[in-house]
Task: structure prediction
Amino acid sequence: MLKNLSSTFTKILGFLVPVLVGVTFFFAIIGVFGLGIAVAGLLVAVIGAVVLVRRVPAEGDAR
Amino acid sequence: MSLNPATLARVQFAFTVSFHIIFPTMSIGLAMFLAVIEGLWLKTKDDLYLQIYRFWLSIFAMGFGVGVVTGIVLSFEFGLGFAKFAQLAGPAVGPMIALEVLTSFFLEAGFLGIMLFGMHRVGPKLHFFATCMVALGTLLSASWILSANSWMQTPDGVAVRDGRLVVINWWHVVNNPSWLVRLPHMLSAAYLTASFLVAGVGAWYLLQGKHLAFAKKSVALGTAFATVLIAGQVFIGDILYGTMLKYQPSKMQAAEGFWGKESASPAPYYWVIAPDQKGQRNRFALGIPYLGSIWLTHSLHGRVEGLKNTPRDAQPIMGMVFYGFRIMYGIAILMFAVATASLWLRWKRRLFTTRWFLRCLVTMTPSGIVATLGGWYLAETGRQPWVIFGMLRTIDAVSPVPAQTLLATLIAFVCIYAFFVTAFLIFIARIIRRGPESASIHAEASGSLKNALRRQVLDRANANAAVGR
Result:
């Protein structure tokens, strides 16, 4: 029972975390919180994506 | 819609330019992708990159060819369908189109042959240089065309003297107020188009369980490029929105779907409307409360300007502008969501095994093309009723050509382009079905028909010998 609950919780979390992070970045980048935060959001998003793509090999990939 | 010459000339241009824009978008994006891939191959010596290069080179070549052919038609249409526009705008737009030919076409023509057929005839570094030059050529081409089109959107550096247009500042003509924002927006769109094409084809192979190494690398590369590009694209899009609001408020008023001088507070963000242009109202509107204020005014209770702020005779048709914008923006949001999901799945090491995500990538394969079309409809229909914003109305730019002639040529264009698109799709489908391994053979440099045939005969003989053994 507890194992099932934990698995459901993990699944919900696995959905919610990227959605929240994505929405926050989207709102920041389109300037909802001002131009300064838009530029900062863009830099963090781009640098973060580049670092993640370079450092974390996608599972079983051909690199 | 009555069949008058003005309407037919506009429909004809809209049809031919809509068809044309698909191919340069693909070739601009794929040329840069090929340059990056060949660079990676030279750096790592990993043959998988070479395989990816050869696979996409065939598709690039076909798209490039169709793009050139359909682009030539547009130059003629300027003169034949919109002679008064060509007459008035010639001094400003003409040199930019000529410069496109002199800079980008010459560059592409010089290096395309080496890129397509020179893999075994020149050294790898020279071949890489040729690929980079072709990519630079496509970029220059986009720059000149965007400069000319942006000048039509936000004209600058000219004066009208004795009914003729005179250039008084060339730098202002080229670097008009919207060019430097629209150019990166278009280039990003092209690169995103290529990224989703590459990722989509890779995802399809993964779902089929075929060509796994190639497929994984394609998905990894396509999603990586898309993730970085979409963040930049959304940012540039917002800057462009502000620029157009300043220089073409009527376009953005129509794009948001509000009619009144000011919207209600807080303003909703409409996704579906049924506009009544005559009655200057929406028959029906469906939106998300508060989101209009948050997105468009960056406050919780801000009001948005409506189309009634523009005199009736200077208003664009709201429905076309609104839905062009919604298609582009809706797809951009989907792309952002897919990019975020790809990062998350990469982090969880499930990028290649999550089937719903792979299906999603396959569905998104043509998304860049559709978004680009939506964006161009927004740009072009939003500029109406002007062909040169604030200077020349479209209705006054049309040539005195009989409606029958325009209708006949329109039907001819539809038939010929239907043939083009069918041939193109069959060709691409065949390449994708064959897979990347066969692309390596078929993309071999031949240099002449005789050599190509000899190679095919040898390939077949080798295959028969292998079967015999």
Remarks:
- The interface with chain A takes residues 48, 213-214, 216-217, 219-220, 224, 227-228, 231-232, 234-235, 237-238, 294-295, 298, 333, 336-337, 339-341, 343-353 of chain B (CB under 8 Å).
